[in-house]
């Protein structure tokens, strides 16, 4: 099956991957509709990709080997427990083998964007307000009121997806009961800490645990080649001032000093001194907050509409599978397209492949969240054998940590 016109709503990682997948399979026209008015490189979120999953995606042609990344080899679990040994970095619990590389979201997005075929039309600053589908086509409407028809509309518009409202109007993200604070900054600032950058090996991901949460800290490539950033994700109870009237986040640049002071107090109260100081080095304008949500849609398609990435499945960050999930969605779409002789057959095959996979990832994220945050063990009683047994219990019956292995079809 070749030809056709496709609208991709959302131009981030999932949207870019799907646009390229559609052109690789012979779509005559692909239009990407991104509501942000500017380019997206400055999004400072760090992500990790398991080495095996990255190699699979390179082999399938979705990413290239030369994407800038930072090597991680060990995940060191730590707690603040001076009574049982430890120093300013806390007490070591377990050095977990960790075959991952870390990435800067914006750098990975830029690599995908640069590989976009020149015939893809990329519309920045376009907000899609509604979508719909008939038996033989689909349509989008933007803020101008203009209505455009397409053979297929792909929703890659995130966890507040307009396209999902049309595909699964009753499927809404569910608040998990806690939040993550996030931040990043240039790694040169580590020299300001007692012990400096040398106190934290570059290939180490640190997971610092406390009653009610944890902070995960690792380095990522900077936007500028040759630079490195510190990236951290701080899981914590929701602050009293947070109001959740629907899925939302508090973006960078909107937190005031008082709310930043709450984060500083939390870090100093719960973390070993070195890690508390590391978190509080973060500039206010680089600090933001995300409530944690779960979402697994009961279907991914309806008529000529299709859901991709976080529009279809919102998985807690504990899985370290978010970017992989989006790229694997695009891979499954290509597989379905190659095998299908009609739009109906293509969408049906994609739906069968990804709905089950998404549900499994969401359930694993919930299990990891309960074990590490909601119903975490008493960290003061844990040692290395206990940590290993605890970790293996979380993964029983699941191969999805870091994402499932890529399904390959001839």
TrEMBL record:
Source domain of life: Bacteria
Keywords: Monooxygenase, Oxidoreductase
InterPro entries hit by this protein: DHP_3-monooxygenase, DhpH_subs-bd, FAD-bd, FAD/NAD-bd_sf
Cleaved signal peptide residues: none
Domain FAD-binding: residue ranges: 299-363
GO molecular function: FAD binding; monooxygenase activity
Keyword Isomerase: no
Database matches in Gene3D superfamilies: 3.30.9.30, FAD/NAD(P)-binding domain
2,6-dihydroxypyridine 3-monooxygenase substrate binding domain residues: 175-238
Protein name per the record: Monooxygenase
Classification of source organism: Bacteria, Bacillati, Actinomycetota, Actinomycetes, Kitasatosporales
């Amino acid at each position: 099956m070749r030809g056709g016109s496709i609208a991709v709503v959302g131009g981030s990682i999932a949207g870019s991957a799907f646009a390229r997948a559609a052109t690789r399979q012979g779509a005559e026209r692909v239009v990407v509709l991104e509501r942000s008015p500017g380019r997206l490189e400055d999004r400072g979120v760090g992500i990790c990709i398991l080495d095996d999953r990255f190699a699979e995606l390179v082999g399938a042609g979705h990413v290239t080997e030369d994407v800038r990344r930072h090597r991680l080899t060990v995940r060191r679990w730590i707690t603040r427990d001076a009574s049982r040994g430890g120093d300013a970095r806390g007490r070591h619990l377990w050095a977990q083998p960790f075959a991952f590389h870390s990435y800067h979201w914006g750098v990975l997005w830029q690599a995908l964007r640069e590989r976009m075929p020149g015939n893809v039309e990329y519309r920045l600053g376009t907000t899609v307000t509604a979508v719909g589908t008939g038996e033989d086509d689909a349509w989008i409407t933007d803020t101008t009121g203009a209505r455009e028809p397409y053979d297929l509309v792909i929703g890659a518009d995130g966890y507040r997806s307009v396209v999902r409202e049309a595909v699964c109007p009753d499927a809404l993200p569910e608040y998990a009961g806690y939040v993550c604070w996030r931040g990043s900054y240039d790694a040169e600032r580590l020299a300001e800490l007692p012990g400096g950058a040398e106190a934290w090996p570059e290939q180490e991901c640190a997971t610092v645990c406390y009653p009610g949460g944890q902070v995960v800290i690792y380095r990522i490539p900077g936007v500028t080649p040759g630079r490195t950033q510190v990236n951290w994700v701080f899981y914590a109870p929701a602050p009293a001032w947070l109001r959740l009237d629907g899925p939302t986040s508090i973006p960078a640049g909107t937190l005031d000093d008082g709310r930043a002071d709450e984060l500083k107090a939390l870090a100093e109260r719960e973390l070993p001194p070195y890690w508390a100081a590391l978190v509080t080095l973060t500039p206010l304008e680089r600090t933001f907050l995300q409530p944690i949500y779960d979402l697994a849609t009961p279907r991914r398609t309806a008529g000529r509409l299709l859901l991709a990435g976080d529009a279809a499945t919102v998985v807690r960050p504990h899985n370290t599978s978010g970017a992989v999930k989006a790229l694997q969605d695009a891979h499954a779409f290509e597989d379905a397209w190659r095998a299908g002789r009609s739009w109906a057959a293509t969408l049906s095959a994609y739906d069968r492949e990804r709905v089950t996979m998404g549900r499994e990832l969401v359930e694993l994220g919930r299990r990891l969240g309960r074990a590490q945050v909601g119903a975490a063990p008493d960290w003061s009683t844990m040692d290395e054998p206990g940590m290993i047994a605890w970790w293996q219990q979380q993964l029983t019956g699941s191969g999805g940590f870091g994402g499932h292995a890529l399904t390959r079809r001839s």
